[in-house]
Write a structure and sequence with these properties.
The chain is an alpha+beta fold and about 550 residues long. The chain has 2 domains: about 5-295 and about 515-545, Periplasmic binding protein-like II (D-Maltodextrin-Binding Protein, domain 2); about 300-515, Dipeptide-binding Protein, domain 3, CATH 3.10.105.10. The protein contains 15 helices and 27 strands. It has a 6-stranded mixed sheet with strand order 18-25-17-24-22-23. The chain has a 5-stranded antiparallel sheet with strand order 1-7-8-10-9. It has a 4-stranded mixed sheet with strand order 4-14-12-11, with no helix packed on it. Strand 5 and strand 6 form a beta hairpin. Helix 8 (about 315-325) runs antiparallel to helix 10 (about 365-375). It is globular, with a radius of gyration of 24 Å.
Length: about 550
């Protein structure tokens, strides 16, 4: 019987798992230079089967504030948070997964050991034995079994419930998960993403949308939700002083809404401890003594295309759009060089999974117009017409993409396509895209790490996906690569996926931004290896906020 231990499995998972970090920081800790007014003496540490808690000399930070330009990302329970990275980030302070990641590798969380049995295609997890839910109830294997049964009836938005065929409690602290098929990114997509639910609370919950009571945010994590204000877009978390893996560094964590323009000022005046900052102020903040962290490209800005509607349903027309947009000029004009031109295959050029030998659609206005003319359009007075009707498309985007939208509009108008550009509230754009109530839109998403993102971003049903299944070979490859356990064979499949995706252009990656976070050093933040959960490129991993030996 073929078995792989936790140590062996982690070694295997490490192959192609790392996205090379531009900056690597040590394990998270409280900063020794913290002001005396900001610290609170530690209470007596509690025991843990895996990690002893902080020594008695450890001192907590009184409060830590994080700025966010959007504010509200939904109630931070598994079924109420908004389906974007910041929503999951709010939730992960409260709810935990079987395994987790730090900046370098997968690490134990609710499971302290695991073993893979290839003959049975099953994972056996040995659980932590001193974990309690925030209401004081013991965490056991029954909660894990319940969770994976529950999501079959009530799917969790980020996990494919069909991957785990069945779950079995071997004893109080051992659980076995049988998979429906071999699944290469199991740790990234399932074990390290699915929040474990307390059975004693959720077993009677059927109306998920209305379950917004305090019981809905009872987790096992290092922080508890103390306050949530949807209108103000604020979150307040209080430390779980009995956390089993260590001592929370901050007594409380706050998320506050601050406009993008005001974030640098808020950091400098000390009203927030960390925030995303624009590239043009990085040098100024380094000089001022702030710590700056960045990550390889893991987020992409896209031109979303309603390929269900004429003329956008034509592959040749979508290719014409790609030729008509000068992505190199876009990077220089819109982002002042602080981005990387998008790859039509979506995978960033810094990734080990990147295929350089695909159609790149270098800017070619003549080629774009030839393709459109081949579809029966005639260029008159600088614009295309067909059957007496002008070629006109609508373009929608959130206000943050106004400059980009204006650039795209100018480019497409130059190619002979009339564009009606409109900015809307971000969630309205998501809603309209999700309902196919659009022609062109500008949006973006992260998670460009483990290549399982390709299946979600091309075939998935959410607004973040192109939802494109018109090419049978592409669809087959996207599904089959998930079950390919041989890394080199899987890589060949990923290369072919990029080629087919680029040829069909169901959406077009325009750019990868260079993102920067600044913080005051009171807590050492880092970018998680391959992103939080399925790939959230936000440096707010919950374990940054826990003092561990």
């Amino acid at each position: 019987m073929a078995r792989v231990s936790r140590k062996g499995l982690l070694s295997a998972l490490s192959i192609f798992a790392f996205s090379v970090l531009i900056l690597v920081f040590p394990a998270c800790r409280g900063d020794e230079s913290t002001k005396e007014s900001d610290i609170i003496p530690s209470s007596t540490p509690t025991s843990s089967t895996r990690t002893s808690t902080a020594p008695q000399s450890f001192q907590q930070i009184r409060s830590y504030t994080i700025a966010d330009s959007t504010g509200d990302w939904g109630y931070p329970s598994p079924y109420a948070h908004y389906s974007r990275g910041p929503g999951y980030t709010r939730m992960q302070f409260i709810f935990e997964t079987l395994v987790w990641k730090n900046e370098r590798s997968f690490v134990p969380q609710l499971a302290r050991e695991w073993e893979y049995n290839a003959d049975e295609n099953a994972y056996t997890f040995t659980l932590q034995q001193n974990v309690k839910w925030h209401d004081g109830t013991d965490f056991t294997a029954d909660d894990v079994v319940f969770t994976f049964n529950y999501i079959k009836e009530h799917p969790y938005q980020w996990v494919d419930a069909s991957i785990v065929k069945s779950a079995q409690a071997i004893d109080r602290y051992t659980v076995k998960l049988y998979l429906s098929k071999p699944y290469a990114p199991f740790f990234q997509d399932v074990a390290g993403t699915q929040p474990i639910l307390p059975k004693h609370i959720w077993q009677n919950v059927t109306d998920l949308e209305k379950f917004l009571s305090p019981e809905a945010v009872v987790g096992t994590g290092p922080y508890k939700l103390a306050d949530y204000n949807k209108e103000l877009g604020t979150y307040l978390y209080k430390a779980n002083e009995d956390y089993y893996l260590g001592k929370p560094i901050a007594r409380e964590i706050k998320f506050v809404k601050v406009s993008t323009q005001m974030m640098p000022a808020a950091l400098k005046e000390g009203s927030v401890n960390s925030a995303s900052i624009p590239a043009e102020v990085v040098e100024d903040f380094e000089t001022a003594g702030f710590t700056i962290i960045t990550d390889p490209p893991s987020w992409n800005g896209k031109l979303t295309i309603n390929h269900q509607k004429e003329p956008l349903s034509s592959k040749e027309f979508r290719q014409a759009l790609a030729y008509a947009i000068d992505r190199d000029a876009l990077v220089q004009i819109v982002f002042r060089g602080n981005a990387i031109a998008g790859n039509p295959g979506m995978v960033p050029p810094t990734s080990v999974w990147y295929n350089p030998d695909i159609p790149q659609y270098k800017y070619d206005l003549q080629k774009a117009q030839q393709l459109i003319s081949g579809l029966g359009y005639t260029l008159e007075n600088g614009y295309f017409i067909k059957d007496g009707q002008p070629l006109k498309l609508s373009l929608i985007a959130a206000a943050d993409y106004k400059d980009l939208g204006q650039f795209i509009t100018q480019q497409l108008e130059k190619a002979g396509i009339r564009i009606d550009f409109q900015t809307l509230e971000a969630k309205t754009v998501d809603s309209k895209v999700g309902a196919w109530d659009f022609e062109l839109s500008i949006y973006g998403h992260g998670g460009l790490y483990e290549p399982s993102f390709l299946q979600r971003s091309i075939l998935g049903e959410g607004f973040n996906s192109a939802r494109y299944n018109a090419n049978a070979e592409l669809t087959q490859l996207l599904n089959d690569q998930l079950s390919e356990m041989d890394v080199q064979k899987r890589k060949s499949m990923i290369f072919q996926i990029q080629k087919l995706y680029a040829e069909n252009v169901p959406a077009l990656t325009l750019y990868y931004p260079k993102s920067y976070w600044a913080h005051d050093g009171k807590i050492s933040l880092y970018y998680t290896m391959d992103g939080i959960s399925i790939g959230v490129p936000i440096p707010l991993n919950r374990m940054c906020f826990v003092k561990q030996d």
